[in-house]
Write a structure and sequence with these properties.
Layout lengths: L9 E9 L5 E8 L5 E6 L8 E5 L10 H4 L2 H7 L2 E6 L15 H19 L3 E2 L6 H9 L12
Parallel strand pairs: 4-5, 4-6
Antiparallel strand pairs: 1-2, 2-3, 3-5
């Protein structure tokens, strides 16, 4: 699908409009035959400027809601963007990725971003997180990201 056959098609298990904390279309899903889970949160069309904000957790990740509950939607709203987050390919047990560490290193986040891009059709990337994970995602598929940068 994205890089090779590792990531199967996206499976959406929640697609609904939510009013809190701010109005947004909430999408939760996963990639078939992987442990990667993700969320995409789209603003109302009047608040969408063709960009997205992607939260990349420090360390090794493992949860697709960390930035969502830490105010990621507000940051996306201020930048006329939709919000993207994944569990970076696992839910805490890294043994599931022992034969392919690049999944939690960058591939799961990149696959999620690219799926969000497909879902939204036209996206510009504006990253507001930092550390090892963000630089690997950006460096690994830099031709897909515009205005990317990280901070600690």
């Amino acid at each position: 699908m994205m890089f090779d056959d590792f990531f199967g098609p996206a499976i959406i298990d929640i697609d609904e409009w939510r009013d809190k904390p701010i109005k947004h279309r909430f999408i939760h899903g996963s990639f078939k035959n992987t442990h990667t889970r993700f969320i995409l949160c789209f603003p109302e069309s009047k608040n969408y400027g063709g960009r997205f904000i992607q939260h990349l957790q420090g360390g090794l990740g493992g949860n697709e809601y960390t930035g969502y509950y830490a105010g990621g939607l507000y940051l996306a709203r201020r930048n006329n963007s939709y919000y993207v987050e994944s569990n970076q390919g696992h839910s805490g047990d890294l043994r599931v990725l022992r034969n392919r560490p690049s999944v939690f290193d960058w591939e799961a986040s990149a696959a999620t971003a690219l799926f969000g891009r497909e879902f939204a059709k036209e996206v510009r990337f504006f990253n507001r997180v930092g550390g090892y994970s963000s630089t690997n995602v950006i460096d690994s598929i830099a031709n897909k990201y515009i205005n990317a940068g990280g901070y600690l």
